[in-house]
Structures are given as C-alpha cells and as structure tokens.
Amino acid sequence: MDAERIGRGYAALAGSLAVAVTLGSAELLAAVAGARSFVVSVGDVVIDTVPGWLERAVISTLGANDKPFLIVSILVVSALLGAALGTLAARRLALGAAGIAAMVAVGVAAALADPQGSGAGAVAAGLIAAGTGVAALRLLLGAAQSGVATEPLPRPRDPADGGLASRRRFVGLAAGAVLVAGAGAWGGQRLAARKRVDAIRQAIRIPRPARRAPPPPAGAALDIAGLTPLYVPNDDFYRIDTALVVPQIDPATWSLRVEGAVDRPFTLTYADLMAMPQIEADVTLACVSNEVGGTLVGNARWQGVPLRDLLERAGLRRGATQVLGRSVDGFTAGFPTEAALDGRNAMVAVAMNGKPLPPEHGFPARLVVPGLYGYVSATKWLTALELTSFDEVDGYWIPRGWAKEGPIKTQSRIDVASRRVIAGVAWAPTRGIERVEIRIDNGPWREATLAEPLSDDCWRQWFMPWDPAAGEHVIAVRATDGGGRTQTAERTDVAPDGATGHHTIRVALT
Ligand SMILES: Nc1nc2c(c(=O)[nH]1)N[C@H]1C(S)=C(S)[C@@H](COP(=O)(O)O)O[C@H]1N2
Ligand SMILES: [Mo]
After folding, report:
1. 381 Cβ inside 6 Å of ligand 1
2. Pocket test for ligand 1, best of 239, 240, 285 (most atoms within 8 A of CB)
3. Closest listed residue to residue 215, CA positions, set 425, 433, 454
4. What is the pTM of this model?
C-alpha cells in the first residue's frame, strides 16, 4: 500500500483497532480453550519482573488500585503499539502482520509461563487471534486506502467526492472492529467468571477439629466504637498478593505435594487433607509492608492440619532447614523448618473464621505460621511444601530486597482517639503483649488497660479513658512484648524486614 495515499491518522487508527480486535478475540478464545487471559498473563509477568523498589512505589501510591492500573497500562501500550504498526503496515502490510504476530507471541509466552491454564489452549487461541487481527488490519487499511483516507482525519469533504462512500466504509469497519473487540473481551470475562469456585466452596463442610481453640475469654473484645474487631471478618481482612486475578482452584483437581529433602515424599488430595486431624488456632497475620499505624494486619480463627504432622509423615532429612511453600501461581515463601516443629500452631489452613478459606485468602489451602510475616510464610493457593535450605532456594520476595527471615516485629496502633477514650490494638505474635503505654502531648508514658489476651499469637486490644481539653493533641503509643522488650522509637522503613517506630497521631478536638 502507498503510505502517501493513506493519511497517517487513518493508518494509526486502523492499527490500534486491529490490535483491539486481536486482544478481544484472544480474550474470548483463551477462555474457550481453557487458557489464561493473555493480558492478565502479561500483567503477571510484569509484576514478577519489575524491580522491587518500583513494585513497592506503585503499591504505596496506588494501593489496591495497582492491579486495575496495570491492566489499563497494558491496554494503552498495546493501542500505541497498534498505532505504530498501522503506520508501518500502510507501507507494507507484512510488517503490520508481523507486528501483530509478535504481540500475540508475547501474550502466548506469558500465558505459557504461568502454571495455571492450558498451554495448548493458549497456542491455539494465539494463532486464531493473530489471524483475526491481521485480517482486521487488512480490511481497515484497505478501506482507508481506497480514497477516503488521503486527507488527515476527519475533514468535511465535497459530497460529490467519491471518497465519501469509502470513508463511510472505513467508519463502518471501525465500528465493527470496536464491537468485535468489546464483545470478545466481555465474552471472555463472562466465560472466565463461570470458572469461579464460589458454589463448590460453599458446599464444603469443614470437619470438626480434633483440637479446638479455647473460646475467647470474656473481656477479650472491648466494646468501643471505631476499635478494630478482635476477629476481622473474612470480607474485611486485608489482602496482599501478586496475583492479578484471584486463582480459582477446584479442590477436586487440587493436590498438595510434600517433597524435597524428605525420606518419603507424598501427595495429598483435598479429601486426604480434610481427613487428617485438624487443629484450630487464633493467629494474627501481618504484612512486612505494613507501615507504622497501617492496616496490613488482621486476626482470624484458622483451622487446618498441623504442619508438623505433614513433615513427620514425610520424614525430614538432614539439611531440610527451610520449608518453602509453593503456590499454584508460582509464588513461593520460605521459613525455618524449626517454626513448624517448635510447638507453635503452624498449619496448612483450610478454614478462616469458621468458613472454607475465601478464594482471595488462598482457597483451598494456605499456610499460616504464627509469628512470621506473610511474605516468608503465608503461601496462599498452596500446592507444594518443599523441604530445602536457605542456601538452595529463596522465596519470591527475597531477591526483591526483603530479608530472608521475617519474624513479626512488635507493633501497636491507635484506632480511636475520641473525647472519652483512646483505644487500639497491639501485637507481637508468639511473644504476646505485656504492656501498652500512651504518651499525650509529650507527657510521661502512661499504661493503658489491656483487654484479656486471646493468645500470644494474636493482637490484643487496649484502651485508656481520656478527658481532653479542646484543641490539638499529639498521641503516641508503644507496646512491650511478653519477653519484656519495648518497641523502639526509631523510625525505619518497611524494607527489608518490617517498619519500626511509635504510631503517633495528631487530633484536633473542639
Ligand atoms: N500465593 C501467594 N501467597 C501469598 C502472597 C502472594 O503474593 N501470593 N503474599 C503473601 C503476603 S506478602 C502476605 S502479607 C499474606 C497476606 O495474606 P492475606 O491476603 O490472606 O491477608 O499472604 C502471603 N501469601
Ligand atoms: Mo506481605
């Protein structure tokens, strides 16, 4: 085709539309073929390859919007690449076709790199989508070339000009392309949504645990408006993971391998796991990325199979010093084997607050290890436990600038500062909370009243009656753990092993 004869704007638009058709049809075809969405797969690769500092910066500026932002970015970049391909294709169609094929190849490669979804399906969907996209490019450029598009984008033309008809044709084709792209994306989403495991999950009966957690003692939960509940409901529980879409795992096809430096590696089905004796325990989970005063922490009642039982069944070999949890989505987290054997309630959890794990929190099974930050321990959508050493393998976050070992630091947080009361929570999992102190307007540290403890693995609520004068006040909190160690005032960043410092707030009371 003759570039001179096709307005650049038309060519670019044709290219973008052809890419949209490619992506939309790929979305639908991938869903039909049981493959992962190309766009989502590329997003996952981006998440896994961007440098740790950038990932942290994006999460801290965009918070929970980081994932939609990533998807939109991929679509915008694709549209721009499409525009560039369109102008190339106006000169030689083969260049545009090669460009579309290359883009699809990137999507297929990303989908293949993901252990979830059908690889053959991804290849088949990619081939057909590329063909569809190239056909769309041809048609659109053909329409653009046949007269209309010799002028920059839309300019009123003489009705007598024969270009009008072909411009109509271009506009019609463009509308068709938008329709095909939109319908493909929508259909793909609909099909993917049908794979959700909600119904299966709701039908699951959680067995009675062989060992129940004691009921929470009277006085463990304070009745203070605005105070974080002792048990955070599943729907409100903080969520942190690298999964762009929540893995939907049918327990019927799920399995858990115990392997590595063990004498008797084995694989369990979900039914096998559910048939093993289970324990129940209250455990506070915390994220290493939790800023001082932050909300990336929560307490729940978990139920599952003691990790120790699984490791004993496998028979630990010498050198099995790290337990590495592997997720179906490729995420890994490792912690000292000692934490599974020293008597704490480390478990492969199947239930959270009396319900099968929500998909967002790792259904059908995840690790819960009291006292360790989630990034080294709490693998969701767990599919393997690999016994290894810290020299051999690093978990996902370690090469991204986080410490190899991640014991949870003592932290305390002010949730409420009203005209009557100051209240909050404090946690030092496995060590417990011995004391919480409050300092108002740089006065002396004064002891707050502690609620009854749930367990040393959980946060503890606290309060202090307050009758403030009107005006501005600065309130700081610090906790002392069960070992008598008080939180340091020194402020450090969340990386590499968790923030330190006193949560300090400023309130204005009238
Ligand atoms: N598969 C998988 N498991 C994961 C993660 C992840 O990215 N992928 N993130 C971990 C981190 S950093 C934390 S803090 C906890 C958070 O668990 P939650 O989302 O249930 O609160 O999950 C851990 N388990
Ligand atoms: Mo985390």
Report:
1. yes
2. 240
3. 454
4. 0.88
